[in-house]
Specification:
Layout (H helix, E strand, L loop, with lengths): L10 E5 L5 H12 L3 E6 L3 H4 L14 E4 L5 H7 L11 E3 L6 H11 L6 H8 L1 H8 L8 E4 L5 H8 L3 E4 L10 E3 L2 H11 L15 E5 L4 E10 L2 E9 L1 E2 L6 E6 L5 H17 L5 E10 L2 E8 L7 H9 L3 H9 L17 E7 L5 E7 L1 H5 L4 E4 L6 E2 L10 E7 L2 H12 L3 E5 L4
Parallel strand pairs: 1-2, 1-4, 2-3
Antiparallel strand pairs: 5-8, 6-7, 6-8, 9-10, 9-13, 11-12, 12-15, 13-14, 15-19, 16-18, 16-20, 17-19
Helix pairs in contact: 3-4, 4-5, 5-6
Length: 426
C-alpha cells in the first residue's frame, strides 16, 4: 500500500484555491485516490472570469459550498454537524488570503493545522521580521503606520530599500526605491491600499525593508511535526526591470556549504514562527554575507514549481500536504534524482502590453522542441491589468537532464511564442 492510498474514505475541505492547473490537478489527484473533496468559495468570479463554475475544474469536486471564507467562524459553521462535530477529516488552503482563517478554523474544529500564529507571522511580513529578531538571516526593517514615521524608517533601513504592503501576495505592490523621493512616492501609493486583492480590509501600513543585494532563490519544503524536509532550491529570474518572476528551474545546484547555510537559515526561520506542519515556499536572497530571508509563504508554490518538484523528486507535494492536513502523518521522502527528470524549468509568458488578449502565435513551433505550453487565459480575456504575478498568460514547461538544460529548452521555446493584445478603451 502506498502512502497516497491513505486518502481512501477521507473527506477534505479546501478553502478557496490558488489559480492554475497545478492546484486544480492536485485536488483531483487526491480524489483519484478516494478522497472526498469539499470546496469552500466566497464567489466564483475570481476563478471563472464570469463563466459557470460547473464547467471549471474547481467545480468538479464532490461538493461546492458558498461561504464567507474570510470569516473562520463561517467556515467552522458549514463544516460541523448539529452536535458541533466536524463533518470533515481535514481542512486546508493554499490561497494566501485564506490560510490564516483556515488555520483558525482547523484549530477550532480540533483538526491538524500549520499553527495559527505561524501562519499569521508568515502572512503578515512585519510579524515574520519581528520573530526573526537578531537572526543573521533577517534584514533591517520598519513598519510605517503614518507619514510622520517615514523619515526615521528610511534612515534606519537605508537606501536602496524595498517598500511593500505587509500583508499581500503575488508581488502585488512591491516597489524598489533608490531615493528618498521614490520611497515617499511608494508610501503615498501603498498607504492608499485599504483592502487586499480579495477584498479584506487593510490599514494602509507600509513595510520598508533593507534591499539585500544578491541572487534570489526559493526553497521548497514540507514540515512534519515541526521537523522540516527539504526538496531543494529553485532558481528565480525576474522579468525585465520589474520584480515579477519570469522563469524558474529546479533543482538549483548550490555548493554544499551554501546549501547547508540556506537549509539552516530556512529551518531557523520556520522554527522561529513555530511552523507545525505543511508546505513552505521560502524566498531567500544569497548575499556576500550569507542567506537573507525575503519571505515565507505557508503554502505550495505557484508557477508550476510544485510540478517541477514532483517530476524531479518523485513525490507529489500537493498530495503530501493534503495527507498532513488529514492527520495521516505522512513524511515525504522524495529528493532530486528520484523522479522522471533530472531537471525541470518553467518560463512565464507575459504579454508585451496590457489589454484584451486577442491571439497567440508559435505554440506548435515551441512544442516541437519538446516542451509543453499551458495557457490560463484565452482570447477575449483582459490581461496584465496589474503589475504583479497575475500578469502572465501561461507557462512553457520543460524537462532536461539538468535544471540548466531544461531552462535553456524552455527559453528557446518561449522565444517562438508571441502574445497579441489589443488596447482597451480607458
Amino acid at each position: 500500500m502506498t502512502a497516497y492510498e491513505g486518502f481512501q474514505g477521507k473527506r477534505l475541505a479546501v478553502v478557496e484555491s490558488m489559480l492554475h492547473d497545478a492546484f486544480y490537478s492536485g485536488i483531483h489527484r487526491a480524489r483519484d485516490f478516494g478522497c472526498e473533496v469539499w470546496l469552500l468559495v466566497q464567489g466564483e468570479e475570481w476563478y471563472t472570469g464570469g463563466g459557470p463554475l460547473a464547467e471549471h475544474p474547481l467545480g468538479k469536486v464532490d461538493r461546492v459550498l458558498h461561504v464567507d471564507t474570510h470569516d473562520w467562524r463561517a467556515v467552522v459553521d458549514v463544516l460541523t454537524d448539529d452536535d458541533g462535530k466536524p463533518l470533515v477529516d481535514g481542512v486546508l488552503s493554499f490561497s494566501d488570503y485564506h490560510t490564516e482563517a483556515t488555520a483558525r478554523a482547523a484549530e477550532a474544529l480540533g483538526l491538524p493545522s500549520q499553527g495559527l500564529e505561524a501562519v499569521r507571522a508568515a502572512n503578515h511580513k512585519h510579524l515574520l521580521r519581528s520573530a526573526l529578531g537578531e537572526d543573521p538571516a533577517n534584514v533591517r526593517w520598519r513598519l510605517v503606520t503614518c507619514a510622520d514615521e517615514l523619515d526615521e524608517a528610511i534612515a534606519h533601513v537605508g537606501l536602496p530599500l524595498i517598500a511593500k504592503p505587509p500583508s499581500e501576495a503575488i508581488s502585488y505592490g512591491v516597489r524598489k526605491c533608490g531615493t528618498r523621493a521614490e520611497a515617499v512616492d511608494a508610501w503615498r501609493e501603498l498607504s492608499g491600499i485599504r483592502q487586499s486583492l480579495r477584498g479584506q480590509p487593510r490599514p494602509g501600513y507600509v513595510l520598508l525593508e533593507e534591499f539585500a543585494r544578491g541572487t534570489e532563490i526559493s526553497v521548497e519544503s514540507m514540515t512534519v511535526d515541526g521537523v522540516t524536509h527539504f526538496f531543494g532550491a529553485t532558481s528565480k529570474y525576474l522579468h525585465k526591470q520589474t520584480m515579477l518572476e519570469e522563469a524558474h528551474s529546479f533543482p538549483l545546484a548550490l555548493d554544499p556549504d551554501v546549501w547547508e547555510a540556506v537549509r539552516s537559515c530556512v529551518d531557523r526561520t520556520l522554527r522561529a514562527v513555530d511552523y507545525r506542519q505543511g508546505p513552505a515556499h521560502t524566498e531567500v536572497m544569497l548575499t556576500e554575507d550569507g542567506p537573507r530571508v525575503v519571505e515565507v509563504n505557508p503554502r505550495l508554490p505557484a508557477h508550476m514549481i510544485s510540478t517541477m518538484v514532483t517530476d524531479v523528486c518523485g513525490t507529489n507535494p500537493h498530495l503530501d500536504a493534503k495527507l498532513l492536513a488529514l492527520g495521516l502523518g505522512h513524511v515525504p521522502d522524495g529528493k532530486p534524482g528520484q523522479g522522471v527528470a533530472g531537471g525541470a524549468a518553467v518560463v512565464v509568458l507575459f504579454p508585451e502590453e496590457s489589454g484584451e488578449f486577442t491571439h497567440i502565435d508559435g505554440i506548435d513551433e515551441a512544442e516541437r522542441l519538446g516542451v509543453s505550453v499551458r495557457l490560463h487565459h484565452e482570447p477575449g480575456d483582459l490581461v496584465a491589468e496589474r503589475l504583479d504575478n497575475s500578469a502572465s498568460v501561461g507557462f512553457v514547461y520543460a524537462h532536461g537532464s539538468t535544471a540548466e538544460d531544461a531552462l535553456d529548452k524552455a527559453r528557446r521555446a518561449a522565444a517562438r511564442i508571441h502574445i497579441h493584445t489589443r488596447r482597451t478603451a480607458p
